[in-house]
Structure prediction request, 224 residues.
Amino acid sequence: EDQVTQSPEALRLQEGESSSLNCSYTVSGLRGLFWYRQDPGKGPEFLFTLYSAGEEKEKERLKATLTKKESFLHITAPKPEDSATYLCAGLSGNTPLVFGKGTRLSVIA
Amino acid sequence: EAGVTQFPSHSVIEKGQTVTLRCDPISGHDNLYWYRRVMGKEIKFLLHFVKESKQDESGMPNNRFLAERTGGTYSTLKVQPAELEDSGVYFCASSQGWGQPYEQYFGPGTRLTVT
Prediction:
């Protein structure tokens, strides 16, 4: 069964304190690994798609990387406005999008 | 360009009543998806339309849930009769046709509370 596991469940950082969020997956025939950001009361907002191991993508203070078993979302010098829940999801050829439970990030000024 | 929109944003109904949720996808997106997040759980897939056809409805919990997509445009999800365990946030997402990119763009969700 396809599965996506995110860690940690919650992360509290001081402003400027860099860290990484982990997403481990067991998705057969992975077609894409997605990262979303979700703010309270809103829908998931698309951040990145990674298609193959070794791929990296960057957007402002965020950088997503992918290996054959996991993906990392690196946050460099975070600001309070980066506080949100970050969701990881995997898409295979045979099953629909499978989400992890997310990591709740709080960045304290 | 307008994003995915959903209506209503919040619905409170009693057990046994009927509720219909609506989703308008991004214009030109053939693929439309419904998801649900129950409190404390991850977002889970319900079903997938390609244009007006149901491509995959493996995630639909039971036959109290009925989804339609009229003319390949907007979609409705009806719950009849609603049960307490149907409470949660229902998200709609849309994506372009086949092939990369596969990104799905989500709406703001409808929070359904069944009392």
